[in-house]
Structures are given as structure tokens and as C-alpha cells.
Specification:
With 212 residues, the chain is of the alpha+beta class. 32% of the residues lie in helices and 33% in strands. Strands 1-2-3-8-7-6-5-4 form an eight-stranded antiparallel sheet, with helices on both faces.
């Protein structure tokens, strides 16, 4: 096979139903690991592997364990769709049945602070796009704030309104944070159309974690 043929073959990336956050983070990681002129075909191969891993059930289950010792989510009645693990950057899992179901993401990041403040983390992520398995949205208002106990740790959250950037539809949403040392666990969720935000459903899943 000629060099040109090998390059073309390596450039074929399968079409998979990935949310945009997976593509962005995988691309960032590929660029940071391979860098500059060292990218090229290597970056494409890395990206392809990340895309395939992200929808592999075993990979999703392992990511849930890494995030917080969560059991197999599918066995608990939840429906994880995709996972991402970018070394030194983020680990997360996205849940949802379809575009009209409850959708939520859990992801962990490492804070630069030795004592991160949950409210500050919420403010930081509130300004960013909310990219869920079946929707891309933006918070436009906050209606309520609260706290919940999660296995002895405080989960701070805000409930507000999200606007779907694709169709302009508004839906209730949640953004919350739990910290453990430098480890920051963020949760973002979107309610089904016309329904209230089921905070209890999000908190109930968090409580399944055994090792935050």
C-alpha cells in the first residue's frame, strides 16, 4: 500500500452518534499529546480510538468506577450513552434515553485550588455550553438554589432554565457541584420538555457513588 493510500485509510473515521463535548475534548487531548507537526495521521488515529471507546459499554462502566466508584449504571435502571477520559483534563459520563427524556452528565476535573468552592465552580460552568447526549443548551436563568447530602458530602446545586441552541426550546435544568479535596465533580441536567427538574433523580444517582 502506498503512503498516500495509508494516509487515506487512516483518515476514515466512522460516523458515531457522539455529543459535541466528546469530540472537542478528544481533539484537545490529541493535539496536546501529539502537538504541532507531530499531529497529522497520529492525531486522526488517536481521535478515532477515543470515539470508539466512548460508546463502548465496558469503557463507560469503567469510567463510572473511576469517577466515584459507581456501580453498573445500566443495571440500576439508568441509561449511560457515552463516556470520555482525557488524562489530566476530564472524566465524564452522559446519560439519557432520547432527546425528550431526562438527560444528565457527570464529570470530574482537578481544581488548581487546594480548597475549591462549589459555588464558584457552579458560576464558572454556568457560563459554558451545556452539552448533553441529545442536546446542546445554555443556562439563561436561575430560579432556585439548594444543597443535598451525598454520602456525607455536600452537593450544592442550582435549578434554572436552559435554552436549547438548536431549536430555541426552553427546559428546566440543574447544575451542581460536589468537592473532595482538589477533585471537583460537576453535574448538569436537563428535564423533559414541559416538566419540572427532578433534582431527586440526580441526587439519587450521586448517592450510588462509593469513592468520591
Amino acid at each position: 500500500m502506498s503512503e498516500e493510500s495509508r494516509v487515506k485509510a487512516a483518515s476514515v473515521v466512522p460516523v458515531v452518534p457522539l455529543p459535541r463535548w466528546v469530540l472537542i475534548l478528544a481533539a484537545i487531548s490529541a493535539l496536546s499529546l501529539l502537538g504541532g507537526a507531530a499531529g497529522g495521521v497520529g492525531a486522526i488515529v488517536y481521535f478515532r480510538r477515543a470515539a470508539l471507546d466512548s460508546i463502548n459499554p465496558a469503557y463507560i462502566t469503567e469510567t463510572l468506577k473511576r469517577i466515584g466508584g459507581f456501580p453498573d449504571a445500566a443495571a440500576g435502571g439508568y441509561h449511560p450513552q457515552v463516556a470520555i477520559r482525557v488524562p489530566g483534563l476530564v472524566e465524564g459520563v452522559g446519560f439519557g434515553d432520547n432527546k425528550d427524556s431526562l438527560q444528565f452528565d457527570f464529570f470530574t476535573v482537578e481544581s488548581d485550588s487546594s480548597d475549591p468552592d462549589p459555588a464558584e465552580q457552579i458560576d464558572l460552568w454556568y457560563e459554558r455550553p451545556v452539552v448533553l447526549p441529545f442536546a446542546n443548551a445554555k443556562f439563561i436563568s436561575v430560579a432556585d438554589k439548594g444543597k443535598a447530602d451525598v454520602n456525607g458530602r455536600e452537593f450544592v446545586y442550582e435549578v434554572g432554565v436552559l435554552k436549547d441552541v438548536a431549536n430555541g426550546q426552553t427546559r428546566k435544568g440543574l447544575i451542581g457541584c460536589l468537592v473532595h479535596g482538589r477533585k471537583v465533580l460537576m453535574a448538569v441536567a436537563m428535564a423533559p420538555p414541559g416538566q419540572p427538574m427532578d433534582v431527586d433523580a440526580v441526587v439519587a444517582f450521586l448517592r450510588k457513588g462509593q469513592s468520591f
